[in-house]
Amino acid sequence: MKFLRFLGNEILLGTMIALLSVFTALASWQGSVADGQQNEFEISGMASLNDGNAEYLRANSDIAQDYNYFDNWYLNVDERPDIADYYQESFSETLVAAMDRDQGVWDEQYYEEAYAEANAYFDDSDTAFEKAGEWNERGDALQLVLMIMALGLAFAAWASLLKEESNMRVVFALFAVITFIWGLIQYLAVPVVA
């Protein structure tokens, strides 16, 4: 234990307290920023999801309207062309484009085009939620760093309160150094969000 006596040195303990305090504050601040970014991306994801749901319902309504217009047009096209023309003028652009294709009116492309805006919102939502997850992982890792550094700070503080001859001072100082190194390693492993 005598070879570790240098750990009880006032300058070393003061340096440890300063370093642990700085890294505790830094991890806390960066964790707060990560939490804020996570929150922003979650709100953005929810907004896009809500807009996508609304757009999806609108597209369903448009498709149902196209079905109705097409059925009425089809029933009247041969015997009452003037009524059929009325319904045909009400076709959506998506239906008009589908009627010009060889695959049939209700082909896969019709539905892809009808739901295109909703799907774009859903894609935006997925992207935002993925980014929120990345910020959450960063925030969680910084919380671990914060806990380790705060623990090391407590060890250094207790060591500084004990008499220089005390073996507990050396033990607490050793724990402070170990937790600082461990915290530094964890800090360097914190994921970066691009």
Keywords:
single chain; 194 residues; mainly alpha; rod-shaped
Written overview of the protein:
- With 194 residues, the chain is an all-alpha fold.
- It has one domain (2-188).
- The protein contains six helices and no strands.
- It has helices at 10-76, 81-89, 93-99, 108-114, 116-161, 167-188.
- Helix 1 (10-76) packs antiparallel against helix 5 (116-161), helix 3 (93-99) packs antiparallel against helix 4 and helix 5 (116-161) packs antiparallel against helix 6 (167-188).
- It is rod-shaped.
- The chain starts with 9 loop residues before the first helix and ends in a 6-residue tail after the last helix.
- 26% of the residues are buried.
Low-confidence stretches: none
Could you give a short account of the major beta sheet? Answer: none
Number of self-contained structural domains: 1
- Gyration radius from CA atoms, angstroms: 33 Å
Give, in order, the helices and strands: HHHHHH
Number of beta-strand segments: 0
- End-to-end gap: 47 Å
Percent in strands: under 5%
Helix residue percentage: over 70%
Structural class: mainly alpha
**Count of DSSP H/I helices:** 6
Q: Which outline best applies?
A: rod-shaped
Mean pLDDT: 93
